Amino acid sequence: MATIRDSFHSRLGFVLAAAGSAIGLGNIWGFPTQAANNGGGAFVLVYLIVTILLALPALYAEIYLGNQTQKNPVGALSEACQRFMPKAGKAAGLIGLMGAIMMLSFYTIVAGWMLAHALAALTEMLGMVELSTWLSSSSMTRDLLFTPIFIVLGAAIVHQGVNAGIEKWSSRLMPILLFMLIGLIVYILQQPGAMEGLAVYLIPDFSQVTDPKLVISAMGQAFFSLSVGVGGMMVYGSYMKKGKDLGKLVVSIAALDAFIAFLAGLLIIPALFVAQTAGVEVFNNGKLIGEGQLIFSILPTLFNSMGEMGLVISFVFFALLSIAALTSTISVTEVPVAYLVEEKSYHRTKATWLISALVFCTSLLVIVFFDVLFELVIQVLTTLIQPLMCLFYFIVVGWIWQRGNKLRDQAAIEAKPALKWWANYLRFVCPILLSVVFVNVAIIN
Ligand code: PHE
Hints:
The protein is an all-alpha fold. The chain is about 80% helix and about 0% strand. A two-stranded antiparallel sheet has the order 1-2. The termini are far apart. Bound molecules: phenylalanine. The site of phenylalanine (PHE) has 15 residues, from α1, α2, α10 and α14.
């Protein structure tokens, strides 16, 4: 008996869930830090170019594969490669799935830090100073508590299903996130020193634009930010009815993602200069003192210097980061869950808890061997797995996949000139461009 697949009930629901996946720690933490370190406006410019030329086409290819096949990533890639290389399709799907677990193994740790800091502000407001100090100081015990709490939060949403869990919660949380972000920006921009930061952020320093490292950082950031290469967007695409105008949807997701990253820069970079004006040491030789320290040391010092209001700001800020991380986590958790449900006939609830247990075990490894594993896992995921998976998507959509692929249907392409351009762009330009950057990464590393 064929079971009816769960699905998104509206286009807006899909866009909010996909934007929820895209908008995460990468936007609110990663993007502003990279911009502050790489020539401000120059980085923003290069980031936008790389997003349009490569990350957005990759997002399209990923969502298109899911949407057209209506299957989980392993099933979708096997089907698309059925005619010429079914095994390679399945293998790539499983590599993506591994990428999803890797992503969760470090992301849930960092998300746990955000949650702990939000609670630190709250407990301090309530006068529980000792608890608050513990919550805001990093320790393995704290990680061992907050990583699983965060994993369980994600699982609690995912096990409810696509419409009742993911769509409902994304639609609730995303507007709250925007609201909090705008509120924070308005407050910070009124503080002394903020305008100097605004200028650094918005005026490009073109001398840095041609630095190959800048282009590579921007590309890694763009892929990570648009969530491509681990199947989260593919599985969301598969929960939408076929035949929608994907181009428009993909552009709206990318635009929302870039917009939030841009807004986060309007908050963080001026905040750095406000902190500097207040006497906190922020830059050393034009570079931020430490990326990690930005969120957990510089900004908290700034919030502390703001008195009572600082506690409120601190709570809102870390709650914002926690929400952003949660909606990203659920999209990635859905990848292995959908695989177990569809390919191995698991019940959704059982699949969700099983995957959550597995994620907890991998994050435990990262917590225990933090110094060796944390950076390494992030590095392998963002500079290897994500770009290689995107290359695979381009090759599959452009060359391998025949049946069901409109971009390979000669009659459809001839009838619509725009489609022909797009098909050729995905087929020829994207794989070459991506390979060029990829080889450069290998050389530089
Ligand atoms: N895009 C998310 C962020 O910006 C992270 C993410 C990566 C989510 C890969 C899903 C897949 O934080």
